[in-house]
Design goal:
The protein has 336 residues and is an alpha/beta fold. The chain contains 19 helices and four strands.
Length: 336
Amino acid sequence: MGVKITLSTEGFDCFYDVFNTKKVLKKQDIEILFNTFSYEKMIKLFGKNVGLTKREHWVNLFYEAYCRHLKLIESNIEKDPIKENIIDSVLWALNNFESLYANVERIKEIINEKDFISKALKYLPVLDSDIEIDMELYIFMNNACVEKGQVLLDVSFLSQLNEEQVNDLLAHELHHYMKSHIRGIYKQTKEGHEDVVKSLFALENEGIADMCSFKGLSFIYEFLGFMEKVLMEDVLNNPVSYMKKFGEMLKNKLEFQKESINLYDFLMRNQIIHPLGYSMGRNIEDVFGLDELKSCVGNPFKFLLKYHHSIEIKNGEKILDGKTIEYLDNIYSDSI
């Protein structure tokens, strides 16, 4: 199996060209950036992930960042962490404009060394085909994502990480990307259980990918404002109690049909999905070994069940009761 990486800086170059001027820009000047092919593609691929699918949303946030840079308005006006991290990415780029290309060269060197590939492969089953990866550098948000075969990377965000952390971030995103090349994963589930299926998918998807990156990057969720202070420590110190609560919610949703329960919201609120998913993966590997953890890739029910058994073996505690497992087995009957 070979991995070929194609790296494009077209999006970043478009950003640089627009802001590389001594004149004071107007909002119309920033609209030019979002008329480029690169930024139109970025919005199309990434915008839905953060609820910002319209061009004017992005123009307004980039212009606000520019005004903050010129000190025309005060900082820290936004309370929404998504919008604030878009503004912060642009603001960091403008405040460090002279060194941007040096940072891009550093990022390119790290990518070309490909150390992140082995980190990602450690937590994947054997892949039997060559893989081509398209990576694109932008200024868009303190973030990175994989969408439709494209890996979008924010230059401002990566520039603030050390080399090991950049490799961790790339390994996490590459794990998502390469997983899509594994045959037979994510088999069909029974209809009518969208919240359950979406939630278990998220736990497995992020939990195993976080095995590649969590130790180096766990600080980012509080640092970027997506997690309340000290909550990360609480979840990591008490993952079983959080997962017992999740198991109880599953029971009430499946056995007692309490449709008001939102499992996905429970996981995504304050991004507790990351320390929870990581704790699940860590326990499975510690109790059953790396191969058993890799066998859970692409199989959310097996991932949850293996974690349930790992806690049962280690602590004598149960995350799920027998009835809940029966319901889940019916939903995922074709998956194991």
